[in-house]
Specification:
single chain, 260 residues, alpha/beta, 5-stranded mixed β-sheet, elongated
Length: 260
């Protein structure tokens, strides 16, 4: 296993840029992953691992995870503790990192007309995105639709998702309003989640068929174009003085209602 000890090594600089730049990730079709369990999840899920980096300590401390990662990786490197600090986006790095290929997009639009989905529009906080991925998988949704905002391969989103975004059907779309129109044509029920008392109580909606429920930006909510395309506006009833739910909390409640 080749050793890398210099923080200025080209492979290390590229890995750092990949974690920082959404445009580079999109251009290269690759993403950066940190953490023994997350990299292990990638190996187990069939994600293509092009390069893997391990500190000497990680090679024995996370032996159960590292063996599978090495077996599924194209090239592996042993890195110094200083290089690990350069790569890490966390305070206490585990010393395990991967550069992976993005998953191949699903054929067509990736939607099952009988399935249950949450659609996210312009979500800005990657931790919210990751938390929603984790909740969606736990509840058993058929997939997550992401339009605008932070991308699903943002390192903070990947960490917050705890591997869920690597396993779930993740659908990225350019224009959510157009996507909702296509779902309407397929006979799906499309819902716009809005903080309005005039909207329909989410608990009263019949959801026996395929459903897409849209959740908007943390500050401004859904765009008017998406709200107008959805067949129905829904609200989560609130009894306290708070004006709205956090985006990840709202999405978890809505996802539960979709499957209930």
């Amino acid at each position: 296993m080749e050793k890398i000890t210099a923080r200025t090594n080209d492979k290390i600089k590229y890995a750092v840029r990949l974690g920082e730049s959404a445009s580079l990730r999109k251009e290269a079709g690759e993403f950066f992953l940190e953490g023994a369990r997350l990299c292990f999840d990638a190996a187990q899920t069939g994600v293509e691992i092009k390069q893997a980096f391990f500190t000497a300590k990680a090679l024995w401390k996370y032996e159960d995870y590292v063996g599978d990662i090495i077996a599924k990786s194209g090239i592996c490197y042993e890195i110094s503790a200083e290089v690990s600090q350069k790569l890490s986006g966390t305070e206490n790095s585990q010393g395990v990192f991967c550069i992976c290929s993005m998953k191949t997009p699903p054929e067509g639009d990736g939607i099952d007309p009988c399935g249950k989905y949450i659609a996210l529009e312009n979500l800005q906080d990657p931790s919210n995105l990751g938390a929603i991925c984790r909740s969606a998988e736990a509840i058993g949704l058929d997939g997550l639709i992401v339009s605008g905002g932070c991308d699903i391969y943002n390192p903070k989103a990947l960490r917050a998702a705890m591997g869920s975004s690597l396993r779930m059907n993740m659908i990225s779309v350019e224009n959510l309003a157009d996507f909702i129109s296509q779902a309407n044509n397929k006979g799906m029920l499309t819902l716009a989640s809005v903080p309005r008392n005039t909207a329909t109580d989410i608990r009263t909606v019949e959801m026996s068929g395929g459903v897409i429920c849209c959740v908007g930006n943390e500050g401004s909510g859904l765009t008017q174009q998406v709200i107008e395309k959805c067949k129905k506006q829904v609200v989560i009833p609130m009894n306290g003085r708070a004006e709205s739910f956090n985006a990840s909390a709202a999405a978890a409640i809505l996802a539960w209602e979709l499957k209930r």
